[in-house]
Amino acid sequence: MGEQLLNALINGILLGGVFALLALGLNLIFGVVKIIHLAYGQFVMMGFYLVYLFYEQAGLPMALAIFLAIASMAAIGFLTQFVVVKPLLNAPRLNQLLALASLIIVFENFALFVWGADYRGIPFDLPIIEISNIFIRTSSFIAFLGALFVMGALYLFLNKTYLGLAIRAVSQDTDVAKLMGINPSMIYYVTMALGGALTAVVAAFFVPIYTVHPHFGSAFTLTAFIIVVLGGMGNLLGGFIGAFLIGIVTSVAAVLTSTEVAEIVVLVIFILVMLIRPQGILGSGVSS
Amino acid sequence: MNGCGRIGKILPVVLLAVLIILPMLPVSTYIIHVATLIFIWSIVATTWSFMGRFGLVSLGHGAFMGMGAYVTVLLFNHAGLSPWIGMLAGGLAACFMGAVLGYACFRFGVIGDYFALVTLALAELVALLVVAFRGVTGGSLGLTVRSVGTSVWYFQFDNRIYFYYIALVALGVVLFIWRWIDRTDMRKALAAIGEDELAASSLGVNIIRNKMAITLISTFFTALGGTIYAQYLLYLSPETVCGVGVSLSIPFKAILGGMFTLWGPFIGSAIIVSLEEYIRAAYGGTYTSISQIIYGVALVVLIMFLPKGIFGTLREKFYSK
Predict the structure, then answer these.
(1) Fold for domain B28-317?
(2) Burial class (CB in 10 A: 0-12, 13-18, 19+), B158
(3) Cβ A99–B304 below 8 Å, yes or no?
(4) A234 lies in which domain range?
């Protein structure tokens, strides 16, 4: 049992890395554009299908397939901003949320139409790493490292480039950012495109771990939201910590009970944290 | 204004008269079916608006609807309890759930986005519980109501027309409660809370008590809508009565019609259910996924253009924080 728990703990940490990456895009969108992107998981699903399309169906090399998927998802993110979010920026928040929720229906049925209801995956034969009775799936390990790398790159982008500075400025205070000569509308486009690109990156790391189907995304939207809220909406570091917390809880609870109970435990923790500390682990005050 | 007031008084009476005699006219059973669905969803959308119009935006009403449906059907299937009694039990169960979550939220001042997300999590939680206890609930495959033919005591009728009238009466009750709420002090208190919680509390408005009261009313009657829905379809699954999808579709209907107006949720439900049925009938047979894509796009377009066009003036109170 002890060994099993240790295994679960380590796999939970690896899962946390992937979750952190998953939540990153959503967090960025929430922090900057300040919308609740309910179709986020469906974006990941589309990213997954695009990698599948370019690699398995079009026969392109993996790297190129991933690159094309990232570019396509960035374009879809941009388009979403142009067609749905921008016209609703001054609308009530509930309307924004429901418009994006309607995109769930559009994306899921588009995937159903193009790829059908079958589970699609790209088979990889990756070995399982074994270190003195601890078993780690190579795919999870790659995803973990990749997630850390991408997060590092994003951190540098946000902190060391002019565009990153502008994004952070808009996130912190849109009005003052305007005074500083930043065009928030442009930054929104960049953020949504970046968020879209990130979903494809997440999807690329998911490829060796999961198989995709049209309803693949919904579970990830909720997971991502839980992480983002736990960490404090718009707080990237908080989201990072929240992701590992959820990863470990999911993994350990699944070993102790079942995967379904693990999901229930996560939701209960989420609700409790929301009640006791709605601003999240690292959030500063509830913005009401 | 005077003319408007008169039309506003006459129109509902005419509408009611038409709805009462509709099943007696030579209309197809399909029309009756769609109308019944509209009534049932109107009940739920209206009871959602009880809370929604005061800024208590719940994205988890699927949980309460599911509670009403599942408690009733499980009590009937396993214990043979009449759904009429089960309906009360389901309503009370939903109230209990609403009370626990509501009290915690109101006590700790969880409002706005955070309230929406907590309730959304509740909807998913209930759906997951239904799936986890599949031995009793049938899990994601769903649950069929044990059929007994036509029996008033067991709330089952072979003829759709009975359900048509039951749903219509229930909708009438719910609309009446809306009116009743309008006349109470609770409405003023909740309106003040919705505008500015801090200011209201400084004027001596008991925030928790008023919010709790409206939550209990809303959850009870949402559960009732869930029961009628389950009894009508004789089938329920986490996807059709609880979960995130249902929970999002409820405010959608209310908002589309206008959640601040008595008839808004009804109009919204009528638009959405008709659209759903029309698209299914017109394209569903051959191109199911395409019809659903069209439906999704139509929803986006409606939410973008309709609320601003028709109910734009009521907008500023939406989701007041």
Answers:
(1) ABC transporter involved in vitamin B12 uptake, BtuC (1.10.3470)
(2) exposed
(3) yes
(4) 2-92+100-115+136-276
Instruction: Give the model confidence (pLDDT) of B141-151 as tens digits.
Output: 888 888 877 77
Is any Cβ of chain A less than 8 angstroms from the Cβ of B63? no
Q: Which residue of A has its CA nearest to B108?
A: A275
Question: In this structure, is residue A286 part of a structural domain?
Answer: no
Only one residue has tokens 């270190």, namely A131
Which residues of chain B fall short of a pLDDT of 70? 1-8, 284-286, 306-321
Give the one of A222, A260, A274 whose C-beta lies nearest to B114's C-beta: A274
Mark yes or no for CB contact B300/A226 under 8 Å.
Answer: no
Structure tokens at A87: 């016209």
Q: Which two tokens stand for residue A140?
A: 């999870």
For residue B94, which of B132, B48, B152, B134 has the smallest C-alpha distance? B48
pLDDT above 90 covers a percentage of chain A that reads 26
- Which residue among A101, A110, A275 sits closest to B110, beta carbon to beta carbon? A275
Q: How far is CA B94 from CA B133, B219, B225, in A?
A: 18, 6, 12
Who among A91, A222, A275 is closest to B104 (CB)?
A275
pLDDT by residue, tens only, chain A of 288 residues:
678 888 888 888 988 988 888 888 898 888 888 888 889 999 999 999 999 999 988 888 989 999 999 999 999 999 999 999 888 888 888 888 888 989 998 999 899 889 888 888 888 777 787 777 778 888 888 888 888 898 889 889 989 999 998 998 888 888 888 888 888 889 999 999 999 999 999 999 888 888 888 888 888 888 898 898 888 777 778 888 889 999 999 889 888 888 888 888 988 988 888 888 777 766 654 443
Which residues sit opposite A125 in a β-bridge? none
- Give A222's contacts in chain B (Cβ within 8 Å): 120-121, 124, 244
Whether A130 maps to a domain, the answer reads no
The residue among A196, A190, A200 whose CA lies nearest residue A158 is A190
Instruction: Kindly report the nearest CA distance between residue B169 and chain A, in angstroms.
Output: 30
B63 within 8 A of B242, measured Cβ to Cβ: yes
pLDDT the model gives residue B307: 58
List CB contacts (< 8 A) between B307 and chain A.
91-92, 95
Interface test with B, best of A94, A113, A226 (most B CBs within 10 A): A94
Predicted structure pTM score: 0.86
Domain-by-domain residue ranges, chain B? 28-317
CA distance B30 to B247: 26
Q: Which residues pair with A212 in a beta bridge?
A: A120
Amino acid at A35: I
State whether residue B133 sits within 8 Å of chain A by CB: no
Which residue in the set B109, B300, B321 is minimally distant from A84, CB to CB? B300
Q: Across the interface, do A84 and B122 touch by the CB < 8 Å criterion?
A: no
| Residue of chain B minimizing CA distance to A35 | B113
pLDDT reported for residue A21:
87
Please indicate, yes or no, if residue A156 is contained in any of the structural domains: yes
| Count of the separate structural domains present in chain A | 1
Q: Is residue A269 part of a domain?
A: yes
